[in-house]
Amino acid sequence: MAVQADYLVDIDLNGDRDFSDANEDVSAYWKRMEWSLGVDQPYDAMARAATLEMTLINEDGRFSPEHASGLSGFAPGALVRVRSLQPTDVDGTYSGVTLGQTGIGDGNTCARFPGGSNIGYANIPAPALDIPFDPDAGTISVWCTADAGSIADGSWRQVIRLTGSGSNNYICIYADAVVDRIQLAYYAGGTWKSVALNTPDTGDSAWYHFVLTWDTAADEMKGYANAVQLDSTRTGLGTWVGPLATNKCCIGTAQAGTIWSTWSGKIAHCAIWDKALTADQVGQLYRANTRQEDVVLDTERDDLIGYWMLDEANGSTAASSTGKTNHFIGWIDKDGIRPAPGTRGKRETVVKASGWMSRLQDDEVFLEVQEGKRTDEVIQALMSASAIYPPGSMGWFLDIPGFMSLGQTTTLAAGFEDFTDMGEGATVLNYAGDNWEEGVSVYRAVSDVVEAEGEGALLYIDRAGQLVFRGRHWPHQDMPESVDATLTQDDIREDGFRYAYGDRIVNDVTISLRPREVGDTIETLGTLTNPVKIEPGESRTVRIRYDDGSDNRIGGKEVSMGSWSAKSESDGGSDLTGYIAVELEEGATGAEITFANSGSKVAYIQAGAAVQGYKITDFGGQEATLADEDSIVAYGRQKMQMRISLLDDLDVAEALAQGLIFLRKEPQGQIEAVTLVANRSDTLMTQALGLTIGDRIEISEGQTGSDGEYFIVGEQHQVSSQYEHLVTWTLRPAPARVFWLLGKTGFSEVDTEALSTTLLGF
Predict the structure, then answer these.
(1) Nearest Cα to 79, choosing from 325, 329, 297?
(2) Which of 429, 372, 428, 620 is nearest to 513 (CA)?
(3) pLDDT value of position 248
(4) Which of 613, 572, 577 is nearest to 596 (CA)?
(5) What are phi and psi of 207, to 5 degrees?
(6) Is 416 helix (H, G, I), strand (E, B) or coil?
(7) Which residues make beta-bridge pairs with 30?
């Protein structure tokens, strides 16, 4: 039987969008789960939502609305998170360590290592750690104190050390023979690189956060102490040889069972990543652990391969909280809890949850016109202007109701870009926002932008709940050099193939676009049709829609207040204009004006108050038409008509049509999706838990010969309490060749090794 994965389902009970404090693990009650991410069809560009449906056992009624002592906060709007525990076990084993010591001040305890002839260490299982460990790129993070006098005696003392084959490959943080010095070293293939902290403080209160990062591709090694880089970046890194050595991957010593190089002091929060963290991430990690910010160490990231908090009160196991892979995070839907009625029958409750995009369908766009922006920049602007933030994000969001109350959360939220992974779009939009209808949702607007990017673009919510966008050149520019997994027909469920062939052919494309023109003088864009009453000391906000006087929608830019006045009566009276303060927020199709009355009398903003700016006029439809005659002769005319209202450039529309026809003018002969039974083998289970959208796989399929390489663009999981785990991956063919993209480094050179990059990109 294959190794099974344990699944954790957390509900945020106190509503603070954070799972680190008050949450309930309902894993003991779930009976069946389904969750999905990404797109349903390989040629989709935008995922509708990340979704979760979970059946909970409800025998005692704890998941019923009338259960007074049930899960408080288990209600629509509560956050749900699904994680899995990886089969790989990297728990360490303690020996001679005193547990339950006062930690760094974060509420967790730590471990004390005795040093000297008193052997104390935590031995990390090298064979298990070697599977995810990457000697070419990684990070080690650890907190420690040194006992007084322990680093002044010229003895070698290891905080942590990972040793490879022989004596020429190890990575470590340690005190060396030089008095009062702690070194951070990367030693690979006999090439030594290190940085040092001289004369560190000692004693139980002198905590240091050491971080060592290395990246051989970038040829950089860096060391940090309390988020400050030590010395200069080291280059000229060597090449690591061989696997990690048994009994030589330890916390607190260099080798298990020996007295050589044992640490004397406390150690806490030891973590290893298989990527080099950036300086900003190192700073975030430092602030998170010291509680200077309300940020939690993200132990669910796929690239975190080992995290030993060392906070056990007793026992012999140094537990690692790695292997917790996040699969889904979202909110319980407003109608997402359905207990079965009565006391007989199944006694179950079905819970439905959705991710970020589902809420974008209820949020209205109000954004100034976007001029000369790439598609990714417009998406970023739309999302930044929205009041919908990712599930689980923490922060004090100024001006967003429900997020700006003092005491609710005291952390100023980071920029929206921290919640996104935005690739660069290839389409530049002359104007965006000016011809969206009034009240258009953020989802619809973002969908329009993704459509304007063209074939190959992809936008979805990933496992961590963040928004991911890839432009249409993504499959070519960001194509991984190697596959992440190879599947044969035996790995796929017997009925687990979905194919595409002639149904994807497109050889005649018409794209409708909307040319626009901007006026060259400032003019009135809209007026207030009715007077607005404002009580003393109060304010009111009104929206003035732009129109051309004939009730035709227009856009506007560089908008400001035109003529207006405030009177004591709705149709005149004494002038009170001087008591009214005005604030204008510019939108692409209308302006929001806030009038504040500082006087002692009721004031009326008179009808006819105007906003002015440069008018953007939509001149109606224009069409770009392109066809491939050879394909039409061979396969018949296969038409596609697209209306892309954001486009007003005929050249761009023709380029999109050209790219679409090139990619789909012939039968694809491809696999659209595969379904596998993950718990059929350890390898498949590891792939099911680890592989996600954007990963590249190779499939060998014997019946139709549809062998090839594919990108995963959608994933769906079905898991039962008996651990039957079905995984369906929606696939998009990985390109066999890349485009010749003018002006793009690496894609515009002509040489003997770039003969496959001479196809003009779209």
Answers:
(1) 329
(2) 620
(3) 93
(4) 577
(5) -80, 140
(6) helix
(7) 56
Tokens of 88: 């790989």
Q: What is the spatial distance between Cα 577 and Cα 140, in angstroms, rounded to a whole number?
A: 64
| 246 within 8 A of 164, measured Cβ to Cβ | no
- Angle (CA) 694-698-702 rounded to 5° is 140
Beta strand spans in 281-357 (E): 304-308, 317-318, 324-339, 348-354
The angle that helices 442-453 and 375-385 make with each other, rounded to 10 degrees, is: 170
* Strand pairing report for 92-95 and 98-102: unpaired
Q: Which of 532, 591, 542, 539 is nearest to 567 (CA)?
A: 532
Query: Quick check: 253 and 262 in contact, CB under 8 A?
Result: yes
**Taking Cα atoms as reference points, which of 603, 594, 597, 612 lies closest to residue 399?**
594
Q: CA–CA separation, 755 vs 565, rounded Å?
A: 69
The residues with which 618 forms a beta bridge, in sequence order, are: 516
* Contact (CB, 8 A) for 58 and 348: yes
Q: How far apart, in whole angstroms, are the C-alpha atoms of residue 308 and residue 123?
A: 11
Contact 650, 622 (CB under 8 A): yes
Task: List residues bridging with 141 in a β-sheet.
Answer: 211, 271
Q: Which amino acid is at 247?
A: N
Do 518 and 558 touch, CB atoms closer than 8 A? no
Contact 64, 56 (CB under 8 A): no
Distance between CA atoms of residues 40 and 259, nearest Å? 58
Phi and psi torsions of 548, nearest 5°: -95, 15
Q: What would the pLDDT profile of 505-525 be if each residue is shown by its tens digit?
A: 999 999 999 999 999 999 999
Q: How far apart are the first and last CA of the chain?
A: 49
CA distances from 744 to 551, 747, 749, 757, 760 (A): 45, 5, 9, 12, 12
Cα dist from 5 to 19, 86, 404, 461, 684, whole Å: 21, 6, 40, 23, 11
- Chain centroid to CA 521: 43
Residue 562, token pair as written in the block: 């035109």
What is the average pLDDT score of the chain?
84
Rounded to whole angstroms, the Cα distance separating 175 from 262 reads 10
Structure tokens at 436: 């969206």
Is residue 650 packed enough to be buried (19+ CB in 10 Å), middle (13-18) or exposed (0-12)? Answer: middle
Least confident of 5-19, 288-302, 654-668: 288-302
Determine phi and psi for 685, rounding to 5 degrees: -65, -45
Question: Which tokens belong to 43?
Answer: 């040629």
Pairing of the two strands 6-12 and 23-25: antiparallel
In three-state form (DSSP H/G/I as H, E/B as E, the rest C), the secondary structure along 644-676 is: CCCCCCHHHHHHHHHHHHHHHCCCCCEEEEEEE
CB-CB contact of 237 with 188 (8 Å): yes
Lowest mean pLDDT among 26-35, 168-177, 739-748: 739-748
H or E stretch including 288? Answer: helix 279-289
Distance, in Å, from the CA atom of 162 to the CA atom of 547, rounded to the nearest integer, reads 69
